[in-house]
Amino acid sequence: AIEQKKTEKVQIEKDKNLKETSLEKLKLKEQQLSAQLKEDERKKQELKRKVDVAIREEINKAKQREINRQKEKQRKKEEAKKGKSTQNTKTKNVKNDVAVNTKKVVTAESSEGSATGKNFANNKGRLPWPVNNGQITERYGRNSHPTLPGVSTVNNGIDITCSSGSKVRAVFEGEVSSVFSIPGSGKVVIIKHGGYMTVYSNLQEVYVSQGSKVSLKQSVGSLVNEGGVSSCHFEIHLISNGLPETLNPSLWLGGR
Hints:
Blueprint: H1 2-86, H2 92-122, E1 135-138, E2 141-144, E3 152-155, E4 158-163, E5 167-169, E6 174-181, E7 187-193, E8 196-206, E9 213-214, E10 219-223, E11 229-240, E12 243-247
Antiparallel strand pairs: 1-4, 2-3, 4-11, 5-10, 6-7, 6-9, 7-8, 8-10, 8-11, 11-12
C-alpha cells in the first residue's frame, strides 16, 4: 500500500508538471496570437489610412475637373455672347453650326462618367471574383477572432484565401487611380469605375500603373506567398456627394 501511494504521488506530480507545462505553452500561444493580432490591426489601419488618402485625392481631382469643366463651359458661353454682339453679320447657318458643336462637346464630357457608374451599379451581385479560386476567410464588418475569446476585428472588405501566388484581376473595367505599398503587407491597386472604386491589396507584383485603363477580368497583379497560401484583401467604395462609403463586397460578387 505504501509503495502504491508513492507511485500515485509520483504520477500526481507528473500530471501537475504536465498541466503547468501545457498552461505555459497556452499562455505563450495566446501572447503570440495577441502580438500577431496587433500587427494585423496595424497593417489594417495603415491600409485604411492610405486608401482614405487615395480616395480623397481622387474626389478632389474629380471636383477640380468639374470646376474646370464649368469654367470652360462659362468661357465658351461668354465667347458665344461676345461673338453674337460683334459679329451679327454672320449667317443663321453659321450660328447653328456653333450651337451644334458646343452641344456636342458638353454631351461628350458629361455622359462618360455617368454611364460608367451606372453600368457598375447595375452589375451588383454579378461581378466576377477578384481571384479565380479561393474561399472567403474573413467577411465584411465585425468578425470574431477564431481562437481568442471575446476578441473581434472590423474588416472594410473581405479576405479571400487562395492558392499561393494567385493572380488578382479587375472585377470591372475602369482606370487605375492609385498604386502604393504597405510595409509588411505588399502592394495595393485602386481602380475607379465612375462613382465606385475597388481596392486590391496584399500584392507581391503589380502589372498596371496609375492612369492605366483596365478591362474586365484583366490581371492587375499577383499575391504575396504566405506559407504555401495567399490572401487577397478586396474592398468596394462608393463615392456619393463627395463622401466615400464602404460597401459589402459579398453582395456585389457573383460567379467566378
